[in-house]
């Protein structure tokens, strides 16, 4: 029976034969053989092959239901290293596929897996002195995947946090990315998708009572201008907005074009400058008697139409009309229409920064990053728009960088490193330019800390004074889950590293030594070794040193800014640029060395 099972397992490398073997009941035949010494390794090897290659959901779930028995098997045979290693491989690959599936299994099914018991068993194995590299790598992947599972309180797994935070400080940047991503998924927040409500009246009441001295001093020291802090910008712009609307209401024949130009300027000053959210009592309850509009927000649309309907509208008026229409549609929730107008606007006015402000909100992170990066090159924009574009480039680059570093493909490592460097650069720029009371400062500081841990380890203070400004203003723009993840990463870093220091060092030693040897393909390992039952699974790796360095191939040849969306010179293909502006500015220097590619 064992020989037949081994032959069936070898056939599973072929997708057609694998389906036939599954239909023939290879899983049902393998699981009972785990209890016999003579066939245990063959059965585990067969299950490892089935979980390594893409199998059906039903097959994966059938193997996953044996997780408690597999964990007990590994604990009962601590000296049988091949058996323990195969058990960990099967558990890691099965649970990972189960938990990352688009359709998460039911809660009753997940409870049958007894995941806390499995985690405790794997961690007991990891504490042994002879733990192998394969066991450690599979444990990291499995524990990171377990953070996708939201267990009930009685099945919570707090031991995952110190383990993942410990490996956030290992030498391998890809492993650090996997561990940190797991930590970022651990916090569970209530209603994370509901944004907080901003109250203009609350801010004005807080300012009227007086800004605390320890918050007022940084505001006074920031910049030469008196109107650069967010608090004053919001109050001043909203006051001008109310004055403009009151004047329009009082005027029986309101000049919507003049009003539209004023509102277009205010829209770009701050996100909270205009809109119904700044009116404590809905404007519809107090409609203006003589104005041609019934709502202050609807006025944006009417002013936009008035600017477009002029006999010969200027380019400035057309840009103002687009700004008003985009802001109106965004407030109404019509994002697709906003994006359409923004794309048309940059075709006519490539340097309209406010259009890139919205194009940086698209679902596709790569396109949003490219648009936000292009928006930063616009010659004229308000400080608010610039900081928002910096915020979006940092956020998009961070998410894309993490995704590439977590990917098993070795070809995305350089681009992932470049994206992380770009995100760090943008967070530094934001923190230098934004006022101390900027509402998005805590979000960027969270990313700054997380990216610093990813690249260098925790180097920043655990005390975050920026949080006090958020509490004073009464608006927390940073996602609560990101805040909690940052707290977990910093608070558990020391204790986690102390508990798992020996495992991290052993992993680093294995990883360093294995980079010097060529790696055989995984399927060949299975075919050549399953017959002798001496299977040693080695996950695919690349030979990158995983140390951050200036990635020149991902920096603009003119402005030297890091980016993953650069375009090559069409003649030589050797230089890369952010856009045509950088290429034009560099052309006088580059044309002597530029040779048309053959």
Structure description:
Strands 1-2 form a two-stranded antiparallel ribbon. The termini are far apart. The protein has 598 residues and is mainly alpha-helical. Helix content is 61%, strand content 1%. It is built from 29 helices and 2 strands. A hairpin with a 7-residue loop joins strand 1 and strand 2 (576-577). Helix 4 runs parallel beside helix 7 (81-99), helix 5 crosses helix 7 (81-99) and helix 15 (230-250) packs antiparallel against helix 16. It is elongated, with a radius of gyration of 29 Å. Among the domains are: 2-192 and 493-532, Leucine-rich Repeat Variant (Alpha Horseshoe); 223-349, no CATH class; 552-590, no CATH class. Residues 556-594 form the MYND-type domain. One of its GO terms (molecular function) is zinc ion binding. This is MYND-type domain-containing protein.
Features:
mainly alpha, 1% strand, two-stranded antiparallel ribbon, 598 residues, Leucine-rich Repeat Variant
What global shape is seen? elongated
The main sheet orders its strands as 1-2
- Helix tally equals 29
* CA radius of gyration: 29 Å
**CATH topology descriptor of one domain:** Leucine-rich Repeat Variant
CATH secondary-structure class of one domain: Mainly Alpha
What is the straight-line distance between the termini?
A: 62 Å
Instruction: Give average pLDDT, whole number.
Output: 75
Oligomer: single chain
The fraction of residues in strands falls at under 5%
What's the main sheet like?
A: 2 strands, antiparallel
Percent helix: 55-70%
- What's the CATH architecture of one domain? Alpha Horseshoe
């Amino acid at each position: 029976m064992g020989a037949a099972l081994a032959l069936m397992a070898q056939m599973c490398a072929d997708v057609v034969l694998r389906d036939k073997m599954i239909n023939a009941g290879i899983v049902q035949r393998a699981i009972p053989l785990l209890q016999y010494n003579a066939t245990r390794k063959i059965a585990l090897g067969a299950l490892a092959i089935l979980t390594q290659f893409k199998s059906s959901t039903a097959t994966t779930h059938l193997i996953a239901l044996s997780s408690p028995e597999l964990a007990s098997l590994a604990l009962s045979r601590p000296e049988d290293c091949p058996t323990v290693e195969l058990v960990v491989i099967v558990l890691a690959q099965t649970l990972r596929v189960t938990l990352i599936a688009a359709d998460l299994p039911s809660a009753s099914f997940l409870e049958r897996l007894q995941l806390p018991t499995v985690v405790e068993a794997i961690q007991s194995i990891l504490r042994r002195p002879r733990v192998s590299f394969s066991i450690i790598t599979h444990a990291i992947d499995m524990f990171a995947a377990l953070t996708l599972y939201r267990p009930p309180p009685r099945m919570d797994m707090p031991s995952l946090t110190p383990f993942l935070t410990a490996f956030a400080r290992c030498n391998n940047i890809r492993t650090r990315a996997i561990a940190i991503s797991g930590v970022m998924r651990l916090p569970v927040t209530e209603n994370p998708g509901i944004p907080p409500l901003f109250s203009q009246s609350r801010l004005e009441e807080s300012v009227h009572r007086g800004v605390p001295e320890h918050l007022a001093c940084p505001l006074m020291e920031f910049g030469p201008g008196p109107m650069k802090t967010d608090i004053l910008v919001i109050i001043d712009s909203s006051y001008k907005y109310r004055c403009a609307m009151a004047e329009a209401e009082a005027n029986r024949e309101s000049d919507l074009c003049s009003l539209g130009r004023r509102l277009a300027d205010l829209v770009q000053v701050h996100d909270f400058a205009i809109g119904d959210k700044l009116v404590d009592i809905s404007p519809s309850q107090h409609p203006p008697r003589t104005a041609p509009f019934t709502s202050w927000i609807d006025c944006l649309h009417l002013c936009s139409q008035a600017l477009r309907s002029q006999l010969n509208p200027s380019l400035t008026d057309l840009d103002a009309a687009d700004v008003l229409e985009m802001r109106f549609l965004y407030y109404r929730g019509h994002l697709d229409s906003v994006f359409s107008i923004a794309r048309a606007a940059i075709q006519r006015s490539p340097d309209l920064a406010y259009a890139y402000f919205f194009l940086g909100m698209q679902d596709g992170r790569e396109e949003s990053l490219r648009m936000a990066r292009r928006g930063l090159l616009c010659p004229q924009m308000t400080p608010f728009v610039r900081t928002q574009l910096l915020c979006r480039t940092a956020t998009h680059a961070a998410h894309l960088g993490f995704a590439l570093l977590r990917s098993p493909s070795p070809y995305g490592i350089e681009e992932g490193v470049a994206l992380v460097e770009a995100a760090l650069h943008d967070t530094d720029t934001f923190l230098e330019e934004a006022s101390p009371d900027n509402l998005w400062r805590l979000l960027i500081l969270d990313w700054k800390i997380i990216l610093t841990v990813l690249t260098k380890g925790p180097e920043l203070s655990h005390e975050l004074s920026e949080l006090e400004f958020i509490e004073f203003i009464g608006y927390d723009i940073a996602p609560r889950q990101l805040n909690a993840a940052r707290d977990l990463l910093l608070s558990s870093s020391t204790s986690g590293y102390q508990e798992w220091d020996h495992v991290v060092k052993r992993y680093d030693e294995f990883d360093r030594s294995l980079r010097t040897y060529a790696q055989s393909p995984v399927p060949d390992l299975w075919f050549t070794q399953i017959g002798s039952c001496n299977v040693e699974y080695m996950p695919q790796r690349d030979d990158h040193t995983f140390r951050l360095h200036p990635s020149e191939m991902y920096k603009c040849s003119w402005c030297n800014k890091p980016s993953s969306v650069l375009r090559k010179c069409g003649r030589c293909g050797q230089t890369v640029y952010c856009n045509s502006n950088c290429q034009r500015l560099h052309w006088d220097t580059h044309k002597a060395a530029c040779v048309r590619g053959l």
